């Protein structure tokens, strides 16, 4: 609804301001705000602290960010990271647990459920108040949230995560590939803020890419966009193995990483390439040589940045995915 969208974006506002921004009459705005107050989605804000005016100051209203919560979880081979936020996106708590990479699928799912309960408890949030849960996972994910292919998590292929996690929260469970959600997290809270065309390279124990076009995750027809690492000729598969073994020189690493990045850049023509995962900790020692190499390989110079979100980019992207789902529901966006 228009009034709630206005207060979500621009509050606190007076009724007159709400009516003007929502392009409705003042009586309509008043009725809508009264209904939203009753539903707990809007609250009266603190008294205005500006210059004193003659007469009683007009009441001001704002979106109630405490009207519910969003959960986000990053499930990987070696860790599970859960985050909870209010509906305004303010993170209330984070919970991380390390897991065995050979953990069987049922045990990994149990660890996810435990992490979600733990992060909610740490934040003092009732799971019954969670309006949506976003999940980031390695592998290819179809539109229903089923992992159609995963080569990194044992027994994970075929897992339908919305079904497996449906009893945790009353809200919808939405699922996406972890690299894509990392790109979304960087767009929301990281170095890609204000940038709509993004390539995010998750470079650590494995290497994969996530893509944002027009500020939206680009998954492709089968959910496999960005899975360039599957092409052995690009060198990413072997690079990940060299990284795990600790046998890659810095020059070899840059050359191997640049081949796949350049192919993606030449296809997507992004505004920025973000290097995340464990390699982002190398900072300029990696980023600057990579910039130089890409300048030789690409038609135009491309901005390359290291992630500033450390290992939280996927979980924050999952929170953003969940919040997008909540907002579609609240604002009747279909």
Automatic annotation (TrEMBL):
Protein name: Putative NBD/HSP70 family sugar kinase
Keyword Disulfide bond: no
Lineage of origin: Bacteria, Bacillati, Actinomycetota, Actinomycetes, Micromonosporales
Keywords of the record: Kinase, Transferase
Keyword presence, Kinase: yes
Transmembrane segments: none
SUPFAM superfamilies: Actin-like ATPase domain (SSF53067), Winged helix' DNA-binding domain (SSF46785)
Matches recorded under Pfam families: ROK
Family per similarity comment: Belongs to the ROK (NagC/XylR) family.
GO MF annotation terms: kinase activity
InterPro entries: ATPase_NBD, ROK, WH-like_DNA-bd_sf, WH_DNA-bd_sf
